[in-house]
Design brief:
With 453 residues, the protein is α/β, with parallel strands linked by helices. It contains 15 helices and 15 strands. Bound molecules: beta-D-glucopyranose.
């Protein structure tokens, strides 16, 4: 990417009560995959499966946050970051998914939470960021309706253990991605495919999303409870009737499927008729039970997608046209750099009158870094952040319902099926020595945050 003209940004323009932070996920950073009684998750198994992950990488060690959490939290503090979103590894806490609690697992998160608080960093905890216990997957995982009971137990344990100090919670991270990539396309753990897996997994995720919210509400006084959704602006590839209709259908699947039942709007079956096939999994009181009055909704935006009608694609008759085939600016993920997408998503979610508050819980980009000794230059990432942030500011200045922004991500980490190849961090990790070095983008963010008021 060429150097872009980027507007000058001032954190104080977002207002004093705007929340700034960074986001991470347990499996992507912790390592310690079998440390101190941790059980095996679907990602531990999936990364052991040949040909599923770029370069056959795994996150057995990753950034070793499990042992280096103090160093990372201190680094965050030195960078003026005062909100930290991270997730809990279910099998560190409940090695068998349910039942026996692993005291060492609780201890680890207690230490992380306490160290954040000691350093005046507010912990924002995501209960589930994709690392289901393998033992539960052996019983069908998200396709088994019993997941609602399993997930409720996990939620209760976490709420009781950490709720005295953690007041910001997110129930699920991107249900569309973990059910779509994990249970429809088979490219993420647990590698299942097809509608027969996807549909029950999706409905059960919707049930867990609200049930998790209710449990947190009951057990954690004063909690701010949210959940997070991936979202991308969906545009028709060609301006013809069929592509336009396809875009509306894909938008319903990718952007509306998980939020609308929570808001009491049901599934968007008119625009995405395929969702009528959810019916056999829906029990009489389910659509009531799917509702929950979240305090905030986290939206996570990286790109936009262009879609076209395609007779060749079964069920949905839609195809995403890859960004690399569209002659547009792209990141290492082959995602289009399209800053207005974040503004348009804030606007779109802002139109739901039931949503109390929107927070960008992830935004960021994978680009190649240039390493010269201690200087790590990542101008593309820096420009990406500034350009997307200026769209967030535009939304804020227009009075849209936007209250915070978290960068994905703090340090480089394990990027799921792409392994360690795409780096998203504000902080570089040398995966051989585990040395942390703040990149130019991180220095900029830190400087930016120093002018919040
Ligand atoms: C996920 C992260 C992931 C990031 C970049 C989001 O979909 O929540 O876990 O690393 O996007 O792909």
């Amino acid at each position: 990417m060429k150097e872009q003209k980027v507007p000058f940004l001032n954190a104080s323009d977002f207002g004093e009560d705007f929340t700034w932070g960074v986001s991470t996920a347990a499996y992507q950073i912790e390592g310690g995959h079998d440390a101190d009684g941790k059980g095996r998750s679907i990602w531990d198994k999936f990364t052991d499966t040949p040909k599923m992950i770029h370069n056959e990488d795994n996150a057995n060690v990753s950034c070793d946050f499990y042992h280096k959490y103090k160093e990372d939290i201190l680094l965050m503090k030195s960078m003026n970051i005062d909100n930290y979103r991270f997730s809990l590894s279910w099998t560190r806490i409940l090695p068998y998914g349910i039942g026996t609690i692993n005291a060492a697992g609780l201890d680890f998160y207690n230490k992380v939470i306490d160290f954040c608080l000691e350093n005046e960093i507010t912990p924002w905890v995501t209960l589930y960021h994709w690392d289901l216990p393998q033992i539960l997957e052996n019983k069908g995982g998200w396709t088994n309706r019993q997941i609602v009971t399993w997930f409720s137990e996990f939620t209760q344990v976490c709420a009781n253990a950490f709720g005295d100090r953690v007041k910001h919670w997110m129930v699920l991270n991107e249900p569309m991605v973990f059910t779509g990539a994990g249970y429809f396309l088979g490219v993420h753990a647990p590698g299942k495919k097809g509608l027969k897996n996807f549909l029950p997994a999706a409905h059960h995720a919707v049930l867990c999303q609200s049930e998790g919210g209710r449990i947190l509400r009951k057990l954690v006084p004063g909690a701010q409870i949210g959940t997070t959704f991936s979202c991308s602006q969906i545009t028709p590839y060609r301006q013809n009737k069929r592509d336009k209709k396809t875009a509306i259908m894909v938008d319903a699947l990718l952007n509306r499927l998980f939020i609308e039942p929570a808001l009491g709007l049901g599934y968007p079956t008119i625009e995405a008729p395929i969702l009528k096939k959810l019916q056999p999994y829906i029990q009489p009181t389910d659509m009531e039970d799917c509702k929950f009055d979240f305090d905030f909704i986290g939206i996570q935006n990286y790109t936009r997608e262009k879609v076209k009608y395609s007779l060749l694609v079964p069920y949905i008759r839609a195809k995403i046209v890859k960004a690399s085939k569209r002659n547009v600016e792209i990141t290492l993920m082959d995602w289009e750099v399209y800053p207005p997408s974040i503004y348009n998503m804030i606007k779109k979610f802002g139109e739901y009158s039931q949503i109390k508050k929107i927070i960008i819980t992830e935004n960021g980009a994978a680009f190649k870094d240039t390493i010269d000794g201690e200087i790590i230059t990542d101008l593309d990432r820096l420009n990406f952040l500034k350009r997307y942030l200026s769209e967030v500011l535009k939304a804020k200045q227009e009075g849209l319902n936007i209250h915070g922004y978290f960068v994905w991500t703090f340090t480089d980490n394990f990027e799921w099926a792409e392994g360690y190849f795409p780096r998203f961090g504000l902080v570089h990790i040398d995966f051989k020595t585990l040395k942390r070095t703040i990149k130019e983008s991180g220095k900029w963010f830190s400087q930016f945050l120093s002018h919040k008021s």
